[in-house]
């Protein structure tokens, strides 16, 4: 790619909204543009190209993008010599409408055109608007070359698939991320090996539903089989993954938790609702009894496995009784932590057509009740760890003061303790002494 001629190298600033998949995509974009001669800008003001990698999974996330565009407009008025690109889910959803609504946007790039971005930027530098939201079926969206981590990085995300075929009735992802597509296992293994050679100790495999990995791979390969291949990579210490769909959580995958030494004892298994009636309206494909059974099997395989989940309150038609069933299931499962949201209509989804909308005030009240309940459960769970020893991979300096370092247990709990910075990047055993809702602290032993 030819880049605009400037005295120094052009700089790109990428602002990321939303989930880990977007963080991974932004990193791939940055590495791609670096290979084209760009360097990373540390602020909007010093950037030649500003890219927003957006999220539309909830209305709030989408609104954040629009208010950021308002801020950038003021900068464009003062300093018009940069290219502004908007990518990701909002770009995919809105396409040409974005340029109509915000004429100062130069590039709109959808979720499937990461590798075409250098060409789009070139076009924008020539003064043309560049909009690409095409979604070729069954294609890998990532540039074929591997990317390198920063030298201080200890853990890394790796996308193993993209898209989703589940069509949960509230979710916009199948519309903006396209059909489910699994990356070639050799590509994944190569990427992980390169990352480990560069010093990465822990990888997190990403996908909308990693449990169904491998359906588009030939010859087909299950997610459990992929984990077994990754587990033998020398130098790799920890493997995590997210997100799992309860309906696709296989016995083979549960066996992996018991058998693979590098697979961390933590699973994020979104429940969404404890009411079978609402689960059916959500098109989730499991009942609360089936979900409970999977939790039972997981705990049979690994008794102290850490379990987290997503809960969506105020789905259209959710009654007080439905909500009470959710509260009761949360209580009986005893999650280590929860991500809790209230329902908002997303464009094009089936649920957005449902008329029995729950009033905003009711949704907020239910959300705060559920948050309160989970705070107590999380604290109790963490207090059970006091006096126990945990293996902690230290990732950086702690926010809890000078001389403190922080890391995570295999169960994904944050642990702070006094320790030399040289410990960062290594694994050590810590005796837990104090528990808070979202973190633990202890002593190196
Ligand atoms: S599994 Fe359901 S909630 Fe998750 S991305 Fe797919 S459609 Fe959305």
Entry keywords:
4 domains, six-stranded parallel β-sheet, 13 helices, Transcription Regulator spoIIAA, five-stranded mixed barrel, alpha/beta, Rossmann fold, single chain, 34% helix, binds iron/sulfur cluster, 445 residues
Number of domains: 4
- State the fourth-level CATH superfamily of the largest domain: Methylthiotransferase, N-terminal domain
Total count of strands: 19
Overall mean pLDDT: 94
Taking Cα atoms only, what radius of gyration do you get, to the nearest Å?
Answer: 23 Å
Cofactors, ions, other ligands: iron/sulfur cluster
For the record, give the distance between the C-alpha atoms at the N and C termini, rounded to a whole number: 53 Å
β content, as a range? 15-25%
In short:
With 445 residues, the chain is of the alpha/beta class. It has 13 helices and 19 strands.
Walk me through what this model shows.
The strands form 5 sheets. A 6-stranded parallel sheet has the order 2-1-3-4-5-6, with helices on both faces. Strands 15-16-17-19-18 form a 5-stranded mixed barrel. Strand 16 (404-409) and strand 17 (414-418) form a beta hairpin. The protein has 4 domains: 11-132, 3-Layer(aba) Sandwich (Rossmann fold); 154-264, 2-Layer Sandwich (Transcription Regulator spoIIAA); 290-384, 2-Layer Sandwich (Transcription Regulator spoIIAA), CATH 3.30.750.200; 389-444, OB fold (Dihydrolipoamide Acetyltransferase, E2P) (Beta Barrel), CATH 2.40.50. The chain contains 13 helices and 19 strands. The model is unreliable at 1-6 (pLDDT under 50). The N and C termini lie far apart (53 Å). It has 445 residues and is α/β, with parallel strands linked by helices. 34% of the residues lie in helices and 22% in strands. Helix 12 (320-333) packs parallel to helix 13. Bound molecules: iron/sulfur cluster.
